[in-house]
Amino acid sequence: MKNASINDNTQNITPESLSLLIKDWGKELGFADIGISDTDLSAYEAQHFNWIGENFHGEMEYMARHGTKRTRPNELEPGTISVISVRMNYFDNDAELATQQLHSPEKAYISRYALGKDYHKLIRKRLQALANKIAEVTDDFSYRAFADSAPVLERPIAEKAGLGFIGKNSLIIHPRAGSWFFLGEIYTNLALPVDKPFTKQGCGPCTACIQECPTQAIVDNAVIDARRCISYLTIEFKGSIPLELRPLMGNRIYGCDDCQLVCPWNKFTDPTHENAFKNQMDLDSATLVELWNWNENQFLKKLEGSPIRRIGFIQWNRNLAVSMGNVEASHAVLEQIINHLQTKLGKVDALVDEHIDWAINQLKSRMDLASQNIETEVTRPDNLMEKEKEKETEKEEHRAKNAIKPFIAKKYYLPK
User: Fold this and answer.
1) b/e for 66-102, b at 16 or more Cβ within 10 A?
2) In contact, 154 and 148? CB cutoff 8 Å
3) Which helix (H) or strand (E) element contains residue 358?
4) Is the residue at 320 inside a domain?
5) pTM: predicted TM-score of the whole model, two decimal places
6) Residues comprising the binding site for [4Fe-4S] cluster?
7) Residues marked as binding?
């Protein structure tokens, strides 16, 4: 924990007035909301260790590595009395419509938080700036700042600090701000007045996120089986993606936002004001083939400063191969995709080769099925009625193009 020295201008202020100053400074630094909590997370501890005990953390061994340091802040940073929690919005309203991209099989869907620059450094710098301001007016101030960078139970802490409730999808949701935001914390030795926590989950009877999850990874209220979660599979997991989950991943190559896209509270989300979080690399409109054709140097150069770079070139290609194998298109398009896939066979890694082979087999099976349907149509004149129905269906789909519906749930809720 850092000890911040003070200068001659240090003022004697009350904890209550300091709390108000912290919130004002936080807003000036670009945080959308700031809350303060104590360090008692005992109400969350059993659920956390039950989650670990069920192996729902998959291969994220760091989730279990630190024992109770994650659930007991004073063990991680001795002397911690209060936790300052912040949130910062990241949804870019100027990016291509998320739902449009998700429903375009040949496009590459990337989680909205990763369209811009890596948030870790930016939030840590802002937290440091906030700590510097606190040090100017406070004696004996010790602290440590976090932005998804240590064994911190972020969401329970945020709930205790009044930044939102933990939703059925396990994310922090605020009734007036949705869930499209990052979290950060400052552990401090200052005894600050705590904010009113959220004590009730605001999801009510809604189960849209549970229904819409492509791989059914939400196994209970606010309980995620990471081993089935597309965000885990595409980012944290380094191995061979289970065969039964590959077709369910669709065109999602980095992360997954489906549970947020169908959450009714997210119609109240405010767009980000941080240019760093705005789409800067045209990842909101890139096609799978376009990204597949990058070599490793292009991958490193084009994604410089992006959180995506940390998964590495091998995993990037593994994810792309799966999504390319899920494309449904015309015979000619599928043939072109197969040709692109074949260009990297034996060129990247054995793991990538395995997923390329799977993808090619998927596409060839789809092409064979399409050929069989064509033959059936040619030899059976009574299909004319069916063809007319198909044409009418295509017209309906065209008319509904701008009113895309979720795959399972009833409606999308995009920020206004």
Assistant:
1) eeebbbbbeebbeebebbbbbbbbbbbeebbebbebb
2) yes
3) helix 350-379
4) no
5) 0.90
6) 203, 206, 209, 213, 229, 256, 259, 263
7) 70, 148, 169, 172, 183, 203, 206, 209, 213, 229, 231, 238, 256-257, 259, 263
CA atoms of 119 and 335, how far apart (whole Å): 39
**Other C-beta atoms lying within 10 Å of the C-beta of residue 174:** 22
Q: What is the distance between the alpha carbons of residues 390 and 95, in angstroms, rounded to a whole number?
A: 33
Number of domains in the chain: 1
Question: Residue 169 contacts by C-beta under 8 Å, 6 or more apart in sequence?
Answer: 179, 209, 210, 213, 218, 222, 224, 259, 260, 263
Residues 219/257, Cβ–Cβ less than 8 Å:
no
Two structure tokens written together for 187: 């552990």
Does residue 328 fall inside a structural domain? no
Residues annotated in a binding site for cob(II)alamin: 70, 148, 169, 172, 183, 231, 256-257
Residue 385, domain extent = 2-286+380-399
Give the catalytic positions in this structure.
Answer: 148
**Does residue 188 form part of some domain?**
yes
Structure token digits, residue 243:
């065969």
pLDDT at 384: 39
Cα–Cα distance for residue pair 137/8, rounded to 1 Å: 10
Q: What are phi and psi of 112, to 5 degrees?
A: -55, -30
Mean pLDDT for each 10-residue chunk of the chain (416 residues)?
58 90 98 98 97 96 93 97 98 95 97 96 97 95 94 97 98 97 98 96 97 98 98 98 98 98 97 93 95 98 96 98 97 97 98 98 92 52 49 50 84 91
